[in-house]
Each structure stands twice: as C-alpha cells, then as structure tokens.
Amino acid sequence: MPLACKTRPANNSALLLAPWFLPADASSHGPALDHQLLLNLWIALSLLALAHLILLAGLVARRRAEATNLWRIEYLPLIALATLFTTLTIKAERLWAATRYTGASLTALQIEVTGVQFAWYFRYPGPDAAFGITRPQLVAPGEGNPLGLDPTDPNSADDQVTSELVIPANREVDLRLNAQDVIHGLSIPELRLKQNAVPGQTIHIHFTPTTPGTYAILCTQLCGLGHYRMNATLRILPPDQFTAWLASKQKAATP
Amino acid sequence: MTSIRSKNFFKTYIATTDHRTIGIQYLVLALISVAIGTLLSLLMRIHLVWPTWPLSHPILPEDYLAIVTIHGTIMLFFVLTTAPQAGFGNLILPAQIGARSMAFPVLNASSFWLTATALLILLSSTFVPGGAAISGWTAYPPLSAVPGAGPGQGLGMDLWLVSIALFAIATTASSINTLTTIIRNRCHGMTWERLPLTVWGWFTAAILSLIAFSVVLAAILLLLCDRHAGTSFFVPNGDLVSGVIHHGGDGSPLLWLHLFWFFGHPEVYIAILPGLGLTSMLLANFSHRKVFAYRTMITTTLLIGFLGILLWGHHMFVAGLNPFVSSAFSISTTAIALPASAKVLSWLATIWRSKPQYTTAMLFSLGFVSLFVTGGLTGPILAQPILDEYLHNTFFVVAHFHLIMAMAGVFALYAATYYWFPLITATTKHPGRLMSEPLGHLHFWLTLIGAYAVFLPMHLTGLAGEPRHYAQLTGIPGPGGSLSPTGLLLAQTIPLNLHITYAAIFLATAQLLFLFNLFRSLRKGQFATSNPWRATTLEWHPAMNPFPPIPASDIPVITVHRAPCHYESTANGDTSLPQWTSDPVSQISIEDTTNAKPE
C-alpha cells in the first residue's frame, strides 16, 4: 500500500503520486498512527470479506436443518471479536496517552494559534518568551492588529503575529489554540493533527515535526460561509533557517 | 355532493385518529422529505465537481451550507426518524401485538400534525431574508447563537430551532404513545418474549426518543434564550463575532456539544433500531426459519439502546475535552460493536443453508446486512481517538454514517415497503396489492450497486484528507489559491469526486424505478392473498387485514399461542405456524432456540 510515502521528499509532488490515500507524514507521532490506521483498515477489510463470504456461501449451499449451537455460532465468535477489539483499543489508547495525556516539555517552542472567521493567525512570544494580553475591544485587522494586542502591556511589544505557521524541524512545538468568534478546527493532515479551537478556552496540543517542507493547514469545523477557504500554510524549516526567519521577523518589527 | 365528498375526504385522510391512516400520513411526509433531501444531495454533488453547471454561476458558499444543513436535518429527522418509527410504527405495530388501536389516538394525530408543521417551518426558512441556517444539523454555537455569525444565522436559524423544537415535542409525545401501546395493549398470550423483534426495535427506539428528544428540546430552549433573552449558556464573555463583542455571562460552547450529542447519538440508533428488528424478522420469514438466538437478539436490542446513550463523547474527541474523557468514550463506543456483531452473527446463522425465497423484501434485507457490516466495520476505527485525530470531519466519517445509517436505514424502509405493501393498500372494497417483483429486483440491484459506488470511494477521499462541509474543492481563494498546499490537497480528490457524483446521479435515478413501481402498484398491482409471504406475525391475521378496519365489535378475540417465526418441515415442504393459530402441532414449537439442545 502507498504508505511507502513515509519517506516522501519535502515537496508536494508525491501527493499527486498517491492521490487516493494518506498524505505523507511529517511528524514524529505520525508513523505509529499510520501503522495503527493501516492495521485497522486491513482488519476491517478482512472481516468485511469474511462476513460476505459466509453470507454468500450460506445462500448458495443446499438447505439443511437450522443450526442450534448457540455457543459455537454466537458466543465463541463474539469472544473472538471482543478480544480483537480490546487489543485494538488498548493499542490505540496507548498511542493516545503518549500524545495527549501529558503536556509539552518546558523547552518546547511556544506558539499561539487563533482561529477567526476565516483565517488562522499565529503568534510567537518573542525574546521575552511571554505572550502579551489581548483584548477583543482592540481587535482591528485593518490596522494590523487582528488579535487585539494591548500595546500598554510590555509583554506584547515583541510578539510576532503571522499568517503562516513556521516551525523548526525536530523540535517539540506547543500550540495554544484560541478562537475569537466561533468554533474552528485546526487540521494539519501531514502532521496527523486535528484539534478544535473553542472560544473562551485555551487548548494546548504538542507535537514534533520531522520532515521539512510546505504543508496545508485547514479548518475542519464548520465555521460559516467562508469555512472552505479558511486555510493557511505550514512551513517546516531546518533549525538554522528557522532561527534566521525568526530573527528577520523581529528585525522587521523593531522600529 | 362535492362538499359531502370533500368533507368525507377531510374526515378520512386529514382529521383522522385512525392509527393506520396516521402511519400512511407519516410515510407520505417521509416520501416528500426524502425526495427533497435527495435532490439537495444531487445539487451538492454536482456543485462540487461542476461548479458552473447547470447555472451559469456557482452556488454561493452560504447557499451550499444551507443545502448541507437542510439535507442533513430533513433526512435524519423527517425521513429516518419518522418513517420507521412513526410511519411503519403506526401502520404495523398495533396489529403486530394484537391491539386494535394505539393507546392515545388524539395525541397520535396531534404528533403527526406537529411534525408536518415542523417540516413546513424548516422548508420555509429557505425563503426568509438571509436564507436557511448554515450551521449544519449539529448547529454548534457561537455560530448558531449569534445572528451576525453568517447569512442564515438570523431568522433562518430561529426557524430551524423552532422546527426542531416542535419535532422534538411531537416525537416525545409519539414515543409515549408507542411505549404505552406496547406495554398496555398487547393481546392475550403476547408475552414479552413472544413480541416480534420489530416491536422490540420500536420499543427500544421509543425509550431512546423519550430520553434524547427531551434533552435536545431543553438545549434548543437554552439556545433560543441565548439568542433572544440575553442569557449566555453557550457564548463566552468577550466573544467577538462580526465586530460585536459579547458581554454578559461566560458560557461554554462545549455545553451545547454535550447536550446536542447526548441527543444526537441516540438519535442515530432511533433511526436504525426498527430496521435491525425488521431485518431479523424478514430474514427468518423468507428463510422459513426461526430467528437464530431470539432471546439474545432481544437482549442485544436493549443493550444497543442502553450503550447508545453512553457514548456521545466520541463525537467530541477533538472538541477540547480532557483527554481522559476521550479514552472513556472510546471504550464505551467500541463496546457497542459487540451487541451489533451479535446481531450480524444471528442474521448469518438464520439464513445459513436455508435456500431462502428471494422476494424483493428479502433482497433488501440481505442488502441491509451487507451495508450494516460494511458501514459498521469503520465504527471501531473512528472510535479510537488517536485515529479520529486524523479522520474526524473528513469524508471517511461521511462514508461511515451514510452506509450504516442512511443506506442501511433506507434499505430497511424499502424492505418494509415491499413487504407490507398489501397492508398499506388493502381497503374495505378490495384486498391489498403487491408491488411488482421484477421491477423490485431491478430496483434492488441498481440501488445496491449505486450505494456502494457512491460511498465506498468517500472512504478514500477522506483518507486523502478531504474535509466535510467544504463549499468548493477547486479555485480556493487566499494566498497561493489553488496552488497553495490546501488547494493541492483538495484538488487531488477531484477525480474520485467526479466518480462519486456520477454514481450519485445513477443512484438517485434508480429510485425513479421505485417511484414508478409504487404509484403503478397502488392502482394496478396484483391483488395479494391475506398472508402472501406466509408470515407468522399478527399483522397478517385475517381479521387485522381489511383496511380501514372492520368495526371493533366484529373483530374476533385474538390470542397468541407461540413466539413468531415458527416453521415446521413436513413431507410436503415446510408449513408456517402463525402466532395466532391455536393448533399446537407439538410442544417443541413453543420452545425457543435458546432452549434447544446443542447438536
């Protein structure tokens, strides 16, 4: 199956080679997730084939007296299925626990993501490593302040707000998700990542990108008429290029 | 003369409290709804792949979302909830338990007219300024709570909420009626264990309706208060929508998600439970066999209902819950795979080496089994939060629920229509009619092929990352446009989406065959004998058959002597032993499969 695209090059051409299956993975937790998904799909396909084979064979074969053995026909297969589903659930719970039960490490790169009808904004805290206060009254996208940063808060002075998400490869990233107006869904297929951004709530999600490249960020929670065009671009850069990008952003912001 | 006739027409078909007429009223309502819902789905499919056809300009994004919303609402509420539960429930349920009527005839009629009003209100929302609601059938706030959040979220959204509120009241009343009828009106000898599995399906679905619809009614009232009475149940303080800041209380959108899905998940079981029961009964009927493991099937029906109210959180794995909560809901969701699998095993065992009679009703029941298995097997995949993190709100989910709920549900409705058509068409003047079997066979095969051709490829576009509710797949605006990573990701699904659209047109066109068969058979169908399928359940009792019913005083006392689906093999082939025949051929016929000794 086209999961060979795990070692896909960092451009989008490979997408077109395998258009009807999973896009390439670019995160450290992705391979295990893909493996679990493929395992599940194969099991589902096998059970599907088995059930239809039994159905058709039973229809074609000559009539016999009806079966009566409840244990053999009903309970033993059920025990087998229960064992199978329990195993799959335990495997899935372990993967879920590994990615979600604990927070990001303290050295993770902090980025705030805000969903707004119909755009994503990304905020880097700057050298002071602290996000400034935002106020809905100050939101003014036309004046370059789409998040409503409070200029009187010293922490906000060095905050960088961008419309693309740029992160370094192989460093853990801690995203804090907000929504300004309605519920949005942050989805990065190549990072095997999906999390709703809910107004009034800050939700943390962490991951480690691996493969440098340019990837899609979508909205996957119906948020209004522009839902389909609420997208952004993710760029995963080699660490040195990321440092250079961040420095250039900060330089441009300094008056 | 005309006035008297029209008065009679009004009395017989409109202001009636006769449960069978009410059943037919519900079925007509569902037929109109399903026609509208199907046309809307075709509009969506055509728009996605040929945006400029047939109109010179594409459907606007807000209109596309309004179509999505009405399609989902109308199909789930006005087709899959009304037709099996209220439609066939009214038409068949009393007869199947040997009752002469439903427990509360006036309440029954009020429920129908309330439902019809709800449908009219929903449809009328299309024509108000701003158009119909655009927030999907799940209506997540703040999008649904703030009128300024988009076109359609003003008056259109209010009408949507009022429509669903009325529907919830009607369904709650209707389920009280169903429950009371089953508990109080069973005839002599109809013990709980002798109840046909269809009745168990209606019974369990009615309990779920009672619990679920009362919760959604409360949630809608809270949302209406948020919209018009200045409360803040679902909107947080400082929420900024379209330049307006919400002040006041600090509510949580997640509260709506909990309330809605506490209703929403049982709702999909309400849609499918009668179909599960019907499939068991029809497979047994046409295999001339007992339902394999009858008591276990009663238990699994109740278990599916019980577990069905404990797993709403699997819709919220990415919604912002504590990750431990997702783990718990993941386990309860996977658990429901077991009673569902038990049903499949029973169906397979019932038809195993039975050389069944392939009537159209039987074919649709076999199709139901196939679709239930195919759609069901992706359930445990979506129940794993780690996989849902990739698959949530992609077309993989759309494929899953359309196969198991929409297609399987519709197959059960088709099976019911072909099977019970004589009971729908019987009058005092002539016996019931049959639908054309050759046309029915053709209809079945085309529908089965069409259903798989539409929904199997959706799994693949979902795996490729295609999200739901996207009004456009090409020409995405924004930086990079169609050449942006998102534009490329969506554009690569176009070849498969083209195929899906062709298949959807094929599937919808094939249903014209059903409509033709239906309307032709209503007037010209072959007359049926009083028990054309050699069924064993009471709705085929000769005294139950004439329509409208003979006066109550003339109905003989009906007594039930055995569980349904008893067939005896004799030298002349097998004979059916209806539940009402008093002739006790042997004591064995009273025993259940579960009592039978192992081979």
Describe this structure in words.
The complex is a heterodimer of chains A (255) and B (599). In chain A, 33% of the residues lie in helices and 22% in strands. Chain A is α+β, with helices and mostly antiparallel strands and 255 residues long. Chain A folds into two domains: 2-6 and 26-101; 109-253, Immunoglobulin-like (Sandwich), CATH 2.60.40.420. In chain A, the strands form two sheets. Chain A has a five-stranded mixed β-sheet. In chain A, strands 4-10-9-6-7 form a five-stranded mixed β-sheet. In chain A, α2 runs antiparallel to α3 (70-101). Chain A starts with 12 loop residues before the first helix and ends with a helix. Residues 1-17 of chain A have low confidence and may be disordered. Chain B has 599 residues and is an all-alpha fold. Chain B has a single domain (23-595), classed as Cytochrome c oxidase-like, subunit I domain (Cytochrome C Oxidase, Chain A). Chain B contains 18 helices and four strands. Chain B has a two-stranded antiparallel sheet. A two-stranded antiparallel sheet of chain B has the order 3-4. In chain B, a hairpin with a 2-residue loop joins β1 and β2. In chain B, α8 packs antiparallel against α9 (294-308). Mean pLDDT of chain B is 91; it is low at 586-599.
List the helices and strands and how they pair.
The complex is a heterodimer of chains A (255) and B (599).
Chain A: H1 13-17, H2 30-60, H3 70-101, E1 109-116, E2 119-124, E3 160-162, E4 165-168, E5 173-179, E6 184-188, E7 193-197, E8 203-207, E9 213-219, E10 232-237, H4 239-253
Parallel strand pairs in A: 1-5, 4-10
Antiparallel strand pairs in A: 1-2, 2-3, 5-8, 6-7, 6-9, 9-10
Chain B: H1 2-14, H2 19-49, H3 61-79, H4 82-96, H5 105-124, H6 155-184, H7 197-228, E1 240-241, E2 244-245, H8 253-287, H9 294-308, H10 323-335, H11 337-351, H12 360-377, H13 379-382, H14 385-391, H15 395-425, H16 437-463, H17 485-491, H18 494-524, E3 566-570, E4 573-577
Antiparallel strand pairs in B: 1-2, 3-4
